[in-house]
Amino acid sequence: MTTSMPFTRIPPFEKALDTPQASAAVVGVLTAIAFALRFYKINQPDQVVFDEVHFGKFAAYYITREYYFDVHPPFAKLLFALAGWFVGFDGHFTFENIGDSYTENHVPFVGMRALPAILGSLTVPVVYAIMKETGYSTIIAAFSACIILFDNAHIAQSRLVLLDATLILFMSLTIYSYIRFRKLRYWEFTVEWWSWLIATGFFMACTWGSKVNGILTVVTIGIAVLVDLWDILDHKKGFTMEHFWKHFMARAVGLIAVPFIIYLSFFYVHFAILTHSGAGDTFMSPAFQETLIGNELLMNSQELRYYDVVTMKHKDTKVYLHSHPDRYPMQYDDGRISSQGQQVTGYGHDDINNHWQIIPTKALPEAGRGRIVHHDDIIQLLHVNTETLLLTHDVASPLMPTNQEFTTWAKDDHSRHNDTLFYLNIVDGNHDDPWKSKSSYFKLVHGSTRVSMWTHSKQLPEWAFKQQEINGNKNPTEKSATWFVDQVISTENPEGHSVDHTPKEPKKMSFFKKFAELQLLMLQHNAGLTSSHPYASGPINWPFLISGISFWTENDEQKQIYLIGNIIGWWTCVITLSIYVGILGADLLARRRGIQPIPEAVRGRLWNSAGFFLLIWAVHYLPFFLMGRQLFIHHYLPSHLASALLAGAVLSFILSDTINYPISIAGRWTKMKHSEYADLGMRGPVAVGVFAFTMFLMFLYMAPLTYGTPGLDGETVNAKRLLSSWTLHFAAKVTAEVL
Amino acid sequence: MATKRVGRPATPPPGLPHVAPSSHKYPPIRHDQLSADERREAASKGYGPGRRSHSPGGLSITPGEWKLLAVVLLVAAGVRMFRISKPNSVVFDEVHFGKFASRYIKTRYFVDVHPPLAKLLITAAAFVFGFDGDFDFKDIGKVFENVPYVAMRMVPATFGVATVPLAYLTLRALDCRATTALFASIFLTFENGLVTQSRHILLDSPLVFFTALTTFLFVGFSNEDKKEPFTEQWWTWLVLTGLSLGAVVSCKWVGLFTIATVGACTVLQLWLLLGDLHVTPRTWARHFFARAVCLILIPILFYMIMFQLHFAILGSSGEGDAFMSSEFRQTLGHGMEDTYADVALGSDITIRHLNTQGGYLHSHAHNYPGGSGQQQITLYPHRDENNIWRVLNATVDGYEQYDYEHKPIVYIEDHSRIKLRHIVTDKALHSHEVRPPVSDVDFQNEVSAYGMTGFVGDINDDWIVEIEKGDGSDKQSSKRLRTLRTHFKLRHLHSGCYLFSHKVKLPEWGFEQQEVTCNKNAVKANSLWYVETAAKHPQLPADAPRVNYKIPGFLSKFWELQRVMWTTNAGLTDRHAYDSRPSTWPGLRRGINFWVKDHRQIYLIGNPFVWWSSTASVIIYMLVRGFLILCAKRGYRDFDNTKVVKYDSLCGFLFVGYCLHYFPFFLMGRQLFLHHYFPALYFAVLLNGAVFDLVTSTLRPKIRLQIAAVLMIIAIMTFSKFSPLAYGDPWTKKKCESARWVKTWDIACNEFLDEYSQYSGVTVPTLNRSTPMATIGGEPGGRAPIVVEDKLGQDEVAPPQDDHTTAAPVGAAEPGRDVFAKDEQKEIKSQIIAQDVPVDIDEKEISVVKFEPTNEAAQEPSSTREEDKVYDGDVGSGTRTGEPEDQGHPGAVVENLEEVVEVGEDNDKPRVPHGPLDHEEAIADQVAYELYPDARDVE
């Protein structure tokens, strides 16, 4: 880059600022402040705060190697576990409730919190570097960095054991690497070019591995790459198709294959560490559970034989299959008529009426393995207490006219024999699989009508004591019609009823099967997080900082941590964002009418680099509008970072008519274009200086809510409630009384 | 300008008769007037080839085609109206739309998720042909009595017929060949799905018609716009497009997709116009405003006029009342008497929740089964003396009870500290640190009624009135509590939470009334209350000011109804036996069972040939277009070819229409059906025509006609194969099985008889008997009804053991869900059925039933015994002392430790036996319900 400028005179001060030394000094100062702000009183509060309940717990599970289940991929949590292990946390503390004391339980929590604090602090220089590499001057880069540096939300989020600091750092590193990669576009297929390509892929995998939302970063880079490839395809550039395919394959390797392998490796480590049975067992399939040491299924599962007496539980609602001598009423309230047979219900408690005996429908050998029940066998179930057989028939069930009624029939009355036959369908079972207690999930499909035994959480009326309805679902493959044998009450098994307590060897399962199962479950559960939370908020509120999240409160000293951003920084971002969209719109209209108000180079920067920032912002923000799940303001933090980058770009556009150009590294065949230099003048440093100072003041003003200390009295809390929608605790109450 | 005149014919010499301007003014050969360069330039701007070459504007078809069109129209009418009077019973959603027609005729207010236009048209037909609104359209398969159902069905059928020529005209206006237009219109005529849908009282047929009409008018307008803007014809086409847009969105909200299509094309037109530097900004602004007025303002006005009509007709109250605000109900003949405006200490008031339609703050002599076990507080939607509360001053901290009867009047001002005394049970509104029964979360506290006669109460009875806002017309209302005018919050003095309610129902023990809690993080909207009535205060003069609800104007009524429709539409997420997701529609994976009766079935299924071929043409278009884009990127110049440009803009328009009528459904979580695909299908069929036009463009006309004829014949044959399902005609099992081309088509083949000859024995029932008839079952979502013949007056009860009658038939037809019917509040007063709430019965104990086969008596359900025991105990002691409630949260003021938990006094009444014993009564109720719908409605 040449500095000899024929047209603009650069003030010496500005020139000095843009030397590498000055730049290093600025970034050094910013980083130092970032560390200071994020480590200040990091041991405060010495209690479990907000989602530390989850993520602290997960770290503990890694250390104790107990299996758990979470919707987020494991990378960030592995880092926490590593940090915890490093500072000597033994995993005994389980982070049960918000407000549990660390000090009393001797948890080295400072070490664990230091990790996100370090990562969060490092985000600031990365933001600076992104701006610098994109070709903005030191002042502009410092401006963008300041928006992150003094932001209360970023600070609060990265001082606690939460995943977002990791996510945000790796996201910014991904952007940084991609920009470096793009700048080498005239040096394609060199070592450097490959390194930055693979670095992009690597960081992308880390981002995705930290939190589910990281997938949005993958999408961002994906879109940018598609645009890039589309450009290479253009015949006006004069590239051959061969050249195009070469580029295509390089990106496929660097941005698909490499990240995927890394992402897989996180899970590999995850499974390799979590070898013991733990809280997450029940989420997984029986086959998976049996790979865990000390798992209940592994310990207690036994093969079932005919004439065993067992209890059966419904997998989803956890009720027992139950029957009692009471009969269905002749007619229901809505006028439909029942069979008046004996009631069959779902019942939540252990009871003698839950006992059923497995009756064979074929000749059995006297002893031996022939007496074991297998997949696809036709069986009858005898209700032991009333000596009746389970039966279903073409009569509508009490609550659902579309489903069949379940009842029982006297054992000795053979008139309805065919209606008492059921196929035993073990889920994922093969022909000769034995039926096992605990570990075999099964469906009970009726022989003649092909309905499967099913239940749902609706209660029957008083006449059935508000127990759950059991009915026949017309869909024999219905997913929720899954049951399992809970207990074996009596058996003629030669080894007897005694369960040997010698630890059994866990079974093996291929890594890819485990990975596929876990991914599917994560997807399902992520979509299922729809319950309401008092601090959940809709995406439309986020950029304007309408509401925050109360992380933690302490009543005695009226301390609280409230996640809320620095209102100056956030609103600046919103304003610059709208200015940017306005500029783009005006530019489009003007060009449509044949006017070209912006010089070509500046316009290119505005569309390409700032446009890339806008893309990052939009891709990390807009998809949340489509999500039905519980959303919080911290989901906006990655977008906020992107909007800080955009704010810098817009500020540069406002302050100067020129840009640093070109910034891409010229290749052998690149035509050297006329280069130019951004000219901010003195107004740049002054404006940014004033802005940074106000940001800092605002940060200090809100700091007690970010650090949770010192405690505030009611009046102060009221004063800090800048928007009426913020629900702070301990606000002074306005009370007046009459009489 | 000069170049423009080059191609024109010379002015006729003077003296010759002047040729009147007609559609033939400009010769049909149009493309050759542009040089290659000009053509390329025009193409690059996206113009059709005709832009500079005097587009004919509007529509130009030859007189011969009008005759052809007449024939097509006749065929379409024949196909759609064939035996329209069969079946003579209710089919599918006629359950709802027939019912709405009867509501219109009876002028009883109802609420529906769809706008009124199509329903009004159906009603008009019904009214003209003398429908009195007495038939209730209750169940699918119910035989019509005194209903001009043929006339009502003719409305959708007429629209269905009219759609066919519109397709023809649209394709012609899009510059397709007559053969193509005929091809597409025959495809539409013989589309089984469209035929089935348009033969019944359903809204989709008008919707598709107006979608087609809008498309046609807009195409006409665009042609006119290419020729010369701002002519009289141009304005006519534009205004008609606007009106038609209004009509489409007034049929169903799906019409918004049509608006989106027209909108997208208009934006494109304006964008292109902006790029034309010959157009001055002034002209451009004229273009812009003309379109804004005609395509935005006119549709909105049209839509609002429809609602104006809707409100004008529905003048009296009906089952839709419960969804509307109290102000709205004032317009439905439910008028409340004027009430006193002032609220003071000692006033007897009723308090209503502002945001939900849950009703009045209510309490009754029943206790919470869990939590504190104190008396319930609920929201109750009907007027009742249990809603009355007396405002008293707070009495703890040494305050005396204020003698409001003799001392001067004390108004309730902002931040007044008050108690609310429930007059009937003489208890105070109370809250404490106990989790509420349903919303069991940390930030919610239970609200109960607590206390007894003579007991002054404790600090947990004290509430602070926080006035949120008053009414502009009543200055005082923002300073002190005024009936109806002041919206206020009630803050619990001790715990700082706000009295709160939300759309959560209590379980059966709370009579499914709405839950009331005290919420520490209350959403403001749900913690606002107002006083609805205030009885006369002893110190007020008889002529004290009175107030009443303000009668809302049209706009506020309109907005309120839109909101209700929107929230309900979004909440329509129940599953239906025959619902389907959008991804299954283009492949025609499944139909809808409309009606099954007398071994006949009506099943909504498309014409597979038409359906699949149109889907195929959509896919072909996407592939070819994608390929062309890639080619262009690599430097091939296909887009300079006029033919490519012509078909690109033609297919592009239809494709955009298809996409905008199809893909938005993916974003909808609500219940969706196959018939939601019909507007998209219409575009797909047109696109199919366009693709046909392109493929055959190089062939000679005769061969083209022959190919078209073969395709049309295949379509007609496929139609006739499936036509028994559309018309509800006799069919055989065998034929039915052979027509199940796709495994997932769940046609009820077993319903059909084995031979056609067997049908001659089965008479189509036309039972219009005068003797009373009742049915059991057949409720929406349930089984088909069982006709119970002449049960009244017979003591004998039908044997219930008959397996055949109790069976749930496979695949019973089920109408779409009418949320507004389901949500109706129970009209039962809470006291009447109050006796059955078991108190404190441990669930675990109920079920242990010892089996003793020898002892008959022991087989009696143990719960009965349990319940009896409790009941006896209660009668014996009247009240029993409960354990002191644990309210020991830190820093609490000393609570009263002698709280008395009361068990409902009216347990003294004999219990009504429930369960198996009272089925006779249930039957009687059922019959009465069937026979006297009027009596039911009056309740």
TrEMBL record, chain A:
Alphabetical list of Gene3D superfamilies matching this protein: 2.80.10.50
Pfam families hit by this protein: MIR, PMT, PMT_4TMC
Subcellular localization(s) per the UniProt record: Endoplasmic reticulum membrane
Transmembrane segments: 20-40, 75-95, 107-128, 135-155, 161-179, 191-210, 216-233, 253-274, 568-589, 610-628, 640-663, 684-703
Alphabetical list of InterPro entries matching this protein: ArnT-like_N, MIR_dom_sf, MIR_motif, PMT-like, PMT_4TMC
Biological pathway: Protein modification; protein glycosylation
EC category name: transferase
Any one annotated GO CC term: endoplasmic reticulum membrane
Domain MIR: 301-361, 370-427
Tree of life domain: Eukaryota
Keywords for this protein: Endoplasmic reticulum, Glycoprotein, Glycosyltransferase, Membrane, Repeat, Transferase, Transmembrane, Transmembrane helix
Membrane topology term: Multi-pass membrane protein
Keyword Repeat: yes
Gene Ontology MF term list: dolichyl-phosphate-mannose-protein mannosyltransferase activity
Alphabetized CDD domains for the sequence: beta-trefoil_MIR_PMT4-like
UniProt catalytic activity: a di-trans,poly-cis-dolichyl beta-D-mannosyl phosphate + L-seryl-[protein] = 3-O-(alpha-D-mannosyl)-L-seryl-[protein] + a di-trans,poly-cis-dolichyl phosphate + H(+); a di-trans,poly-cis-dolichyl beta-D-mannosyl phosphate + L-threonyl-[protein] = 3-O-(alpha-D-mannosyl)-L-threonyl-[protein] + a di-trans,poly-cis-dolichyl phosphate + H(+)
Enzyme Commission code(s) on record: 2.4.1.109
Role: Transfers mannose from Dol-P-mannose to Ser or Thr residues on proteins.
The family this protein is said to belong to: Belongs to the glycosyltransferase 39 family.
Name the UniProt record assigns to this protein: Dolichyl-phosphate-mannose--protein mannosyltransferase
Automatic annotation (TrEMBL), chain B:
GO CC aspect terms: endoplasmic reticulum membrane
Domain MIR: 340-394, 409-468, 478-534
Disordered as annotated region, ranges: 1-58, 796-816, 852-923
Biased composition (Basic and acidic residues): 29-43, 863-872, 906-922
CDD domains xref list: beta-trefoil_MIR_PMT1-like
Reaction catalysis annotation: a di-trans,poly-cis-dolichyl beta-D-mannosyl phosphate + L-seryl-[protein] = 3-O-(alpha-D-mannosyl)-L-seryl-[protein] + a di-trans,poly-cis-dolichyl phosphate + H(+); a di-trans,poly-cis-dolichyl beta-D-mannosyl phosphate + L-threonyl-[protein] = 3-O-(alpha-D-mannosyl)-L-threonyl-[protein] + a di-trans,poly-cis-dolichyl phosphate + H(+)
Taxonomy, superkingdom: Eukaryota
Composition bias type Acidic residues, residue spans: 896-905
The protein, known as: Dolichyl-phosphate-mannose--protein mannosyltransferase
Organism, as annotated: Rhizopogon vinicolor AM-OR11-026
